[in-house]
Amino acid sequence: MKNIIPEQKDGKRLDCFESIDFESETIASLAFDAAKENLLAVNKWFELADIPATIFQLTDGYGNPIDRTLRLHDYIRLDIPGPGLPSSDGYDWVNVVNVLFDNSADHKSFAITLKPCPDPRNPEQKDTAHFFEGISSSTFLIEQRRNSLLFQYAGRNEVINVENEHLADNIRNYIIGLGAKIGASYPQWKLLLKGMADRVAKVFNKEDQR
Predict the structure, then answer these.
(1) Is the pTM of this model over 0.70?
(2) Bridge partners, residue 144, by sequence
(3) Does residue 112 contact residue 147 with C-beta atoms inside 8 Å?
(4) Which tens digit of pLDDT belongs to each residue from 30-60?
(5) Is residue 190 part of a domain?
(6) Domain count of the chain?
C-alpha cells in the first residue's frame, strides 16, 4: 500500500482525515469490513454526508448506470453543485484506476483511486470531462491499526482543465476548478469521510467516542 497515493507533482494537493477508536481490535476489524463495503457502495455516498452535495452514480464502461459495488475500471458520474459541464450533459466523470487491499499481521488497508476521464458515453470525445485535468487523482483510503480506523481522502495534482475543444467547457471548468482549489471541495470530502466514520460508529455503538 506504500504507493497507493499518487506522487504530488503539479497543481494543488488536498488531504482530509477522520479517525475512530474501538474497544478492541476484533471490533475494529469488523468495523473495517463494514467501512470497506460502504466505500464500495458508490451510489450511497450521497446519503453518507451530513450535508449532501455531489451525487455519485456508478456506471459501466459505456456510461450506463449500474447498481452494485464498485469494481476496477468502472466509471463514476458526478453531478456536482453549480454549473454543469456543457459537453457531457452537465456531468463530470472519473474512472476507477486502482483498487488495493492489504491484510498484514498488524495492519489492514483498503483504497480506491479515481482519475478524471472522457465521457464514456461518447467514445469519439477525447477531452477530459472534469474540471481537473486527467493528471489529477482522488484516493480514498481506510486503514485499521489495532483498535483504530483511519479514513483519508487524498487529492493529488489538481490542475484546472482548460485545454478543451469547447470554450464553454473551459469557462465552466475554470469557475468550478478555481473554487475547488481555494477550498470549496474540502467540505464535500470531509463530510463524506465523517459520514463513513459515523456510520460504523453507530453500527458498532461507539457514538460516544466520536
Answers:
(1) yes
(2) 108, 149
(3) no
(4) 999 999 999 999 999 998 887 668 999 999 9
(5) yes
(6) 1
